[in-house]
Amino acid sequence: MEILPLRGKNRIEKEEDAAKRWPEKWGFLKTPLEELLGDEKKEDAKPKLQLPDHLQIRPVTPVEKYIKVLPSPPVPKTTQGFIGWRSGDPALALEHNFQIPSCRGAVCSKK
């Protein structure tokens, strides 16, 4: 009694045949990397060139020199106080001297 259908038997034969041929085609993949690279010469690193002054990288400037962080107002004691507690202080306002011009008035005045 045959358990495998013809397609399955054919597939197993092809797999066995491929397993036998694998070392001929792909056996080089089993070679350790050190053995493959042992024949090659290691190229010497290029010597570093001295760059002119105008091309050299400048030292990093600390952020504190450009960004001034002011102390925050005291933290509110209630959760309701958290709403807008920073924007209520004029020194911490995000919009300084900012007004949105009315588009309606600007269009009507141009005749």
Radius of gyration: 38 Å
Structural class: mainly alpha
Q: Mind describing the biggest β-sheet?
A: none
Which stretches of 5+ consecutive residues score pLDDT under 50? none
Mean pLDDT, rounded to whole units?
Answer: 76
Can you walk through the features of this model?
- This protein is an all-alpha fold and 111 residues long.
- It is 30% helix and 0% strand.
- The protein is built from 3 helices and no strands.
- The chain has helices spanning 6-26, 33-37, 103-109.
- The longest helix is centred in the first third of the chain and has 21 residues, at 6-26.
- The termini are far apart.
Quick take:
This protein is mainly alpha-helical and 111 residues long. It contains three helices and no strands.
What are the main properties of this structure?
30% helix; 111 residues; single chain; 0% strand; 3 helices; mainly alpha
Topology:
Blueprint: H1 6-26, H2 33-37, H3 103-109
